[in-house]
Amino acid sequence: MKAALLYEAGKPLVIEDIQISKPQRNEVLIRTVASGLCHSDLHFVDGIYPFKSPAVLGHESAGIVEAVGSDVQYVEAGDHVITCLNVFCGKCHFCLGGHLSLCRGTGTRRGPEDEPRISKDGEPVTQFANLGGFAEQMLVHENAVVKIRKDMPLDRAAVIGCGVTTGAGAAIRTAAVETGSDVAVIGCGGVGLSAINGAALAGANRIVAVDRIDSKLDLAKQFGATHTVNATDGTAVEQVREITGGGVDYAFEAIGLKQTAEDGWAMLRSRGVLTVIGMLPPGEKIEIPGLDLLTEKRLQGSAMGSNQFRLDMPRFVDFYLSGRLHLDELISHRTPLEGVNDAVENLRGGAVARQVFTFDD
User: Fold this and answer.
1) Structural class in CATH, domain 2-161+306-358
2) Of 84, 162, 227, 306, which one is the catalytic site residue?
3) Which of 106, 169, 104, 158 is nearest to 302 (CA)?
């Protein structure tokens, strides 16, 4: 099958033919129909986070089941599915507590004595996030998929697999935004726009979108932003506090930078909650004034929107089909896999929301 391989950080991905195994007893073979390019993929392409190569990146995908292992009962050939990087074991402390997004899923991988799921000339190839969506097929554990209704377009379904669930989930599940509250979202890429959409679905009152690119701020209004702030002049905190009369109840950082996380904290009113969605570089620290803790402000992270993806993703599909979740507007470009390196450069430029690779013949 054809796949985009990362051989070395900082170098272009290479389109090559690789080999894929057959499903073992708890595995599902999927024909990939669409796969989104996420900013976290870029972190690994650029070497910000180290990773074993060669690897097939991609973790935001949707497709059609082609075959299943002998013990799989949840899906069958012909089912439409979204994949999720939060493959869950179902047995650990976090799974049993309902926090599937924190499961490490180690028991869902093949053992060292097994044939690798994907390989190149007999040598193992790493599946990013146990998925490897930048390929014509995916071979994954059954607990990495969720079955969805067949009237859902799979290119739109793909972006639910990470960006939408991460952003909207941060608002709905992690922060549990309350009806009538004020919200600020810093960063209007795919995740930030989804956080805005999630806050709107939760019934927020004022939703302030913050970014440096006017086209993204204009797009944010389509997702539910009631106000926008261009942060290029360095007064974003002051502008948000003025718009909301003293600060927001919930702030979301969707970029992954120390400065924007600290700005999000400064945008909060007393008892406000900052949720950092973005992936900060390893070793990075956030500094906050200690006295602010006396105002009962809170700082928290969010792992993939604190999702329970087999519950959440079908609901997001229903939201989209009823016109409440804005996926058409989220997708900036569709391209064949051969355009992967151009798409990476587009993402580095920061002007795009979501790009999707399509594998239709």
Assistant:
1) alpha beta
2) 162
3) 169
